[in-house]
Amino acid sequence: MPEVSNIIVWLILGGISGWIASMIAGKDASMGIVANIIVGIIGAFIGGWVAGLLGLGPATGLNIWSFIVAIGGALILLWIIALVRKR
């Protein structure tokens, strides 16, 4: 079971990566902190999956590569959400 401090760090990094992705996508004003955290965490899973498919290596641990992968995955998620909302 993860320690509480690890969970807090992952939530903070999820929020930051979701926030950065929302700023890049131009969605920052319409998203709150909870949405940023959710987008960042789900984006980390999506980014890790895509990085694995592309053979870019695993994004494990708390490091800059994992952060970049999470931001990329969050951007993919925001793009998918935008496509679904247009329909």
From TrEMBL:
<keyword id="KW-0472">Membrane</keyword>
<keyword id="KW-1133">Transmembrane helix</keyword>
<protein>
    <submittedName>
        <fullName>GlsB/YeaQ/YmgE family stress response membrane protein</fullName>
    </submittedName>
</protein>
<feature type="transmembrane region" description="Helical">
    <location>
        <begin position="62"/>
        <end position="84"/>
    </location>
</feature>
<dbReference type="GO" id="GO:0005886">
    <property type="term" value="C:plasma membrane"/>
</dbReference>
<dbReference type="InterPro" id="IPR007341">
    <property type="entry name" value="Transgly_assoc"/>
</dbReference>
<dbReference type="Pfam" id="PF04226">
    <property type="entry name" value="Transgly_assoc"/>
</dbReference>
<comment type="similarity">
    <text>Belongs to the UPF0410 family.</text>
</comment>
<feature type="transmembrane region" description="Helical">
    <location>
        <begin position="33"/>
        <end position="56"/>
    </location>
</feature>
<keyword id="KW-0812">Transmembrane</keyword>
<feature type="transmembrane region" description="Helical">
    <location>
        <begin position="6"/>
        <end position="26"/>
    </location>
</feature>
<keyword id="KW-1003">Cell membrane</keyword>
